[in-house]
C-alpha cells in the first residue's frame, strides 16, 4: 500500500483486471485464458464453420445471446434477451446437453445454477467477465454485513443483489434472506425486500439501486448512502447506516457510467426533438435528464413502437444501439455519447471463439465449462428463484419524465 493511501486508511482491492484474460485468478469475474488453438479472425470460412458445427450439434446445444453481443455472434443465438430473459430461458431446453452462453461470466454462472445437473454450460471465452461484478468481492461484502451486525442493523436489512454479480455474491444474498434483481424487475425486487425489512443492502451497482429506489419507489436521495469497500466501515457512521433505507454498494458499470448529463444536453442541441432513452445503470443525473429509462428489452420495445420519423439518442452498449439503428432505418437512432463505447468483455465473445467452442463440442471436448460448486449454487439458486417467483411478466414499467 502506498503511504498516501495508508494515511487515508484506504485498503486497495487486489487487482482483478487481468490483461487480455491471461493468467488465472479464480476470485476474478474476468476469468482465465482461452486454451487451445483459436481460428484466426481473418479466416474467410468462419461463418460456414460455425454453421456446420451448429448444425452438427442440433438439439444437443442451446445457444443464448445477450443483446450486447456482436452481430456476427448474435446471429447464432437460439434465444436473445436481456439478463432476466436469459436467466428464465437458461432452463427452457432440458434436452440440450450443452448451453453455449454468448454473454459474460456471471450470466453463465446463473445458467449453470438454473440448469439441470446433466447440462453443461460453456462460455466461449473465459475472459468475458464484468468489471461491475468484480467490484464486489465476497470478503468485502461479508465485512459490510459484519459491520451491520455489529451495529445491530443486519436483522432489519435485506440484501438485494443485481444479476451482474458473482455466484458467490448471489449465494451470500440467498443465505441472508435476500433476492436477486435485474434491470427489468429491480422495482419489484426492492418492494419485495421492503416488505421484509426496513433497509436494503444493494449490490453491486449503486446507480441501478439509486435510480430504482428514488424514481420508482419514491425514496429520498438523502435516504441512500454509499458503502465504499475501500474505506474503513464503508466510509459511513453507524448513524448514517441506521438512518438509511438504501445502503448502495460503491460499484458501477464502466460502459453506462461513461454517459453524462452533458451528453444529454449536447444531443438535445444537435438533434431537434430527440427523445433520450437510457439504461438504469447510467448515473442518476443522466437518468433524470432522459425521457425514458429501462432495461435493454425496454429499449428495444420502445424503439420498435416508436413512430417513423422520430429521433432517439440511446444510452446503452454500442453493439445494441448500432443494431437497432440498422433495424429501424425509418427512425433516426444515434448513440448518446460522441465517443465509441462497447463493453470490451462482452466483445471478447467473437466468431473465432464461438467457432472454437462449437467445433470442440462436435469433437467431443467440452471447452470452458462453467461450474458453480454445490453449496454456492444452492444458496444462489434460492435467491434466483425468489426473483423468478416475483409477480409480473418480467418487465418493469419504466420511469417516464
Ligand atoms: P440487462 O441485460 O439487464 O439490460 O443489463 C445490461 C447489462 O449490463 C448486462 O451486462
Ligand atoms: Fe458488466 Fe457493464 Fe459490460 Fe454489462 S455492460 S457486462 S454491467 S461492464
Automatic annotation (TrEMBL):
InterPro entries the record matches: NadA, NadA_sf, Quinolinate_synth_A_type3
Transmembrane intervals: none
Signal peptide residue numbers: none
GO terms for cellular component: cytosol
Keyword Metal-binding found: yes
One BP term from GO: 'de novo' NAD+ biosynthetic process from L-aspartate
Residues engaged in binding iminosuccinate: 66, 83, 162-164, 183, 279-281, 296
UniProt EC number: 2.5.1.72
Cofactor(s) needed: [4Fe-4S] cluster
UniProt keywords, alphabetically: 4Fe-4S, Cytoplasm, Iron, Iron-sulfur, Metal-binding, Pyridine nucleotide biosynthesis, Transferase
One GO MF term: quinolinate synthetase A activity
Binding site for [4Fe-4S] cluster: 130, 253, 343
Subcellular location: Cytoplasm
Family: Belongs to the quinolinate synthase family. Type 3 subfamily.
Protein's name in the database: Quinolinate synthase
Amino acid at each position: 500500500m502506498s503511504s498516501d493511501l495508508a494515511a487515508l486508511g484506504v485498503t486497495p482491492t487486489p487487482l482483478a483486471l487481468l490483461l487480455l484474460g491471461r493468467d488465472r485468478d479464480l476470485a476474478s469475474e474476468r476469468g482465465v485464458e482461452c486454451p487451445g488453438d483459436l481460428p484466426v479472425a481473418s479466416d474467410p470460412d468462419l461463418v460456414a464453420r460455425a454453421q456446420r458445427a451448429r448444425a452438427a450439434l442440433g438439439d444437443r446445444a442451446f445457444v443464448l445471446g445477450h443483446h450486447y453481443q456482436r452481430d456476427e455472434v448474435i446471429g447464432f443465438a437460439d434465444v436473445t434477451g436481456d439478463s432476466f430473459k436469459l436467466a428464465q430461458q437458461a432452463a427452457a431446453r432440458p434436452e440440450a446437453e450443452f448451453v453455449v452462453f454468448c454473454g459474460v461470466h456471471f450470466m453463465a454462472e446463473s445458467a449453470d445454477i438454473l440448469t439441470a445437473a446433466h447440462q453443461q454450460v460453456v462460455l466461449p471465452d473465459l475472459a468475458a467477465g464484468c468489471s461491475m461484478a468484480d467490484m464486489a468481492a465476497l470478503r468485502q461484502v461479508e465485512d459490510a454485513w459484519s459491520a451491520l451486525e455489529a451495529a445491530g442493523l443486519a436483522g432489519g436489512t435485506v440484501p438485494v443483489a443485481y444479476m451482474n454479480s458473482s455466484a458467490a455474491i448471489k449465494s451470500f444474498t440467498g443465505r441472508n434472506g435476500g433476492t436477486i434483481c435485474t434491470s427489468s424487475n429491480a422495482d419489484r425486487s426492492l418492494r419485495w425486500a421492503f416488505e421484509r425489512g426496513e433497509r436494503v443492502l444493494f449490490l453491486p451497482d449503486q446507480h441501478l439501486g439509486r435510480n430504482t429506489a428514488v424514481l420508482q419507489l419514491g425514496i429520498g436521495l438523502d435516504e441512500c448512502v454509499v458503502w465504499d469497500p475501500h474505506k474503513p466501515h464503508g466510509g459511513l457512521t453507524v448513524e448514517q447506516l441506521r438512518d438509511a433505507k438504501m445502503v448502495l454498494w460503491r460499484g458501477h458499470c464502466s460502459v453506462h457510467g461513461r454517459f453524462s448529463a452533458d451528453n444529454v444536453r449536447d444531443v438535445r442541441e444537435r438533434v431537434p426533438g430527440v427523445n433520450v432513452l437510457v439504461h438504469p445503470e447510467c448515473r442518476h443525473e443522466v437518468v433524470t435528464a432522459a425521457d425514458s429509462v429501462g432495461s435493454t428489452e425496454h429499449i428495444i420495445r420502445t424503439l420498435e413502437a416508436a413512430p417513423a420519423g422520430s429521433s432517439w439518442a440511446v444510452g446503452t452498449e454500442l453493439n445494441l444501439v448500432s443494431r437497432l439503428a440498422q433495424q429501424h432505418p425509418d427512425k433516426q437512432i444515434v448513440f448518446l455519447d460522441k465517443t465509441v463505447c462497447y463493453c470490451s468483455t462482452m466483445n471478447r465473445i467473437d466468431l473465432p471463439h464461438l467457432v472454437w467452442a462449437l467445433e470442440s463440442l462436435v469433437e467431443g471436448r467440452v471447452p470452458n465449462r462453467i461450474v458453480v460448486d454445490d453449496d454456492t449454487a444452492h444458496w444462489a439458486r434460492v435467491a434466483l428463484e425468489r426473483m423468478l417467483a416475483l409477480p409480473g411478466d418480467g418487465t418493469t414499467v419504466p420511469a417516464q419524465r
